[in-house]
Amino acid sequence: MSALLENRIALVTGGAGRLGRATAELFLGEGAAVAVADIDTARVKAVAEDLSATHAGRVHAISGDQSKKEDANRFVSEAETALGLPDILVNAHGIFPNCPMLDVTVEEWDSVFAVNTRGTMLTCQAIARRWIDAGTRGAIVNISSGAARSGRPGGAHYSGSKAAVEILTNIFATELGQHGIRVNAIAPGLVLDEVMHETSEDAHPYVNLTLEATPMGRTGAAADIAEAAVFLASNRSDWTTGAILEVTGGTHCGRTHMPFTRQLR
Ligand SMILES: NC(=O)c1ccc[n+]([C@@H]2O[C@H](COP(=O)([O-])OP(=O)(O)OC[C@H]3O[C@@H](n4cnc5c(N)ncnc54)[C@H](O)[C@@H]3O)[C@@H](O)[C@H]2O)c1
Fold this sequence. Notes:
Helix content is 41%, strand content 14%. It has seven helices and seven strands. A seven-stranded parallel sheet has the order 3-2-1-4-5-6-7, sandwiched between helices. α1 (18-29) links the parallel β1 (9-13) and β2 (33-38). The relative contact order is 0.13. It binds nicotinamide-adenine-dinucleotide. Nicotinamide-adenine-dinucleotide binds at residues 13-14, 16-20, 38-40, 65-67, 92-96, 115, 119, 143, 145, 188, 190-191. Nicotinamide-adenine-dinucleotide (NAD) binds next to α1 and α4.
């Protein structure tokens, strides 16, 4: 079977992070060339060096702050210069602070929306303009969060920024479909560096409670999200646009911890 992303070129933002790196790695394995962009210059260079060891000539590192228009534009132009015009964009950058709504400051609120929402909009805008000029039928995959539609204490700014990412995914799909451009999002559940199957006293209560509420009985792996990104970037999803794909092990589909009610009177 041929690789799903043969001859494709991807720009993956947040490429130094957990999900961005895993996505870049899987895309390379599926035949794509990948530009990884991130605000963390040292880590994004290290990731590119690591990935280049097995995929020489197909990886490029870009450093910059995606919440700034000039940097978001440069992510696209630098990727094009290094590897050719990307025809896939994955927005996997993000910040996720937690703060009670009574305490959140205007500065913290604005920074979460600037990075998560404006940053996503800016790279989508930069690449869509370039695709329309070049006649490229590209695919955008935005990483949202299960938190976009499921509130939890301390997450007002984060959930709000990701809910905004989901509606802009829908809207961009309506505007760009006429150019053959698809825009989808993935809403991941809890993904840690290591997959956890069991609750434990050492784990953060948030992790334990999430495990109890997840029908598939484990936390996610970065590769779970990357597999979904491959599908949404590849022509296997040629008729899929404006979709929000939940990859959560079922965490948000109901009250998994409730018992059967057969004996209830
Ligand atoms: N890990 C999870 O459980 C989970 C669950 C749901 C959603 N998500 C979302 O997935 C995305 C990736 O999460 P992760 O777990 O890989 O986190 P991570 O912290 O490992 O990676 C995020 C990356 O984004 C980069 N970044 C932050 N601000 C930036 C900016 N202004 N410009 C460019 N890059 C910037 C960081 O340097 C980091 O490398 C985030 O948007 C996050 O909200 C993660």
